[in-house]
């Protein structure tokens, strides 16, 4: 099932493309400040533990953006206005196999590439692929609909700017990338497991259509200036695969999803190839 953009707005496309570029330039933050918290102990996803999402901004002075930020993620992608921009351009990705490790961070399962795993390009800027990880259920929603799983592919530019590609999944056929991961990992209880050469190109996008907006990390420190690209296609994952991801994380983190944040005037762009291109 594909998600379809509801509203179409024409004209001034160049302005909005420049807007994305200029917003990226406003956040030349060092790579270290973009890093997600590795140890989940300081925060939780359930409010009854006293460390839930509503309290993240008070738990550490470096996390205040979780409360005060105006570009926070995730969001509902079909709320408010969207600009449909065919001129936004096709996703330019060039991934390649590289040495990788899988790490159980307690609050999620991550695959981190230790070699050059390739890149994607946005508005002429190259972003190197660093890692991917999973949230269950999905963090981004679509008219309030939350899917069973969301994959985040985290990239960073030479100037420390972050770009994340997100793919959402519903129950159905097994996901081939997770199948390959589980073959390499007999158990996901280990803190870290060497995977050998692992190909990020095995992650299937399934559509050239995508949403884009400027947001934040979805875990502390909730750093802003993240260029989000959410693929329009809903892919499939098996119930057993989702269960394996949930069983592997620490107790209390089986549902590792931050609530959707206010749009606060965020401009959501939607790319679709022109009708005569024959692309999906």
TrEMBL record:
Reading the lineage from the top rank, the first entry is Eukaryota
| Signal peptide per UniProt | 1-32
What InterPro entries does this protein's entry cite?
Answer: Alpha_CA_prokaryot-like, CA_dom, CA_dom_sf, Carbonic_anhydrase_a-class
What UniProt keywords apply to this chain's record, in alphabetical order? Signal
Tell me where it resides.
Plastid, Chloroplast stroma
What's the name of the protein? Alpha-carbonic anhydrase domain-containing protein
Pfam short name (any one): Carb_anhydrase
The Swiss-Prot or TrEMBL record describes its family as follows: Belongs to the alpha-class carbonic anhydrase family.
Q: What taxonomic classification does the UniProt entry list for its organism?
A: Eukaryota, Viridiplantae, Streptophyta, Embryophyta, Tracheophyta
Domain annotation Alpha-carbonic anhydrase: ranges: 41-272
Cite the SUPFAM superfamilies for this sequence.
Answer: Carbonic anhydrase
Q: So what does this one do?
A: Reversible hydration of carbon dioxide.
SMART domains xref list? Carb_anhydrase
Q: What is its main location?
A: plastid
* Coiled-coil intervals: none
**Catalyzes what?**
hydrogencarbonate + H(+) = CO2 + H2O
């Amino acid at each position: 099932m594909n998600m379809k953009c509801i509203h179409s707005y024409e004209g001034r496309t160049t302005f909005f493309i420049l807007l994305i570029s200029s917003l990226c330039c406003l956040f030349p933050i060092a790579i270290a400040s973009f890093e997600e918290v590795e140890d989940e102990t300081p925060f939780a996803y359930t409010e009854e533990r006293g460390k839930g999402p509503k309290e993240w901004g008070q738990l550490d002075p470096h996390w205040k953006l979780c409360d005060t930020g105006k570009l926070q993620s995730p969001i509902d992608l079909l709320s408010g206005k969207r600009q449909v921009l065919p001129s936004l351009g096709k996703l330019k990705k060039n991934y390649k196999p590289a040495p990788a490790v899988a790490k159980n961070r307690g609050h999620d399962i991550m695959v981190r590439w230790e070699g050059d795993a390739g890149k994607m390009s946005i508005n002429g800027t190259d972003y190197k692929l660093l890692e991917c990880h999973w949230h269950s259920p999905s963090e981004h929603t679509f008219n309030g609909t939350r899917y069973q799983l969301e994959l985040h592919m985290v990239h960073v530019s030479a100037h420390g700017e972050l770009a994340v590609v997100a793919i959402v999944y519903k129950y159905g056929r097994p996901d081939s990338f997770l199948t390959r991961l589980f073959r390499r990992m007999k158990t996901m209880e280990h803190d870290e497991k060497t995977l050998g050469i692992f190909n990020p190109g095995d992650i299937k996008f399934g559509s050239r259509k995508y949403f884009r907006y400027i947001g934040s990390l979805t875990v502390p420190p909730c750093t802003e200036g993240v260029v989000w690209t959410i693929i329009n296609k809903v892919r499939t994952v098996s119930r057993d695969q989702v269960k394996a991801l949930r069983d592997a994380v620490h107790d209390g983190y089986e549902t590792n999803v931050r609530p959707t944040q206010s749009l606060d005037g965020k401009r959501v762009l939607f790319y679709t190839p022109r009708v005569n291109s024959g692309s999906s």
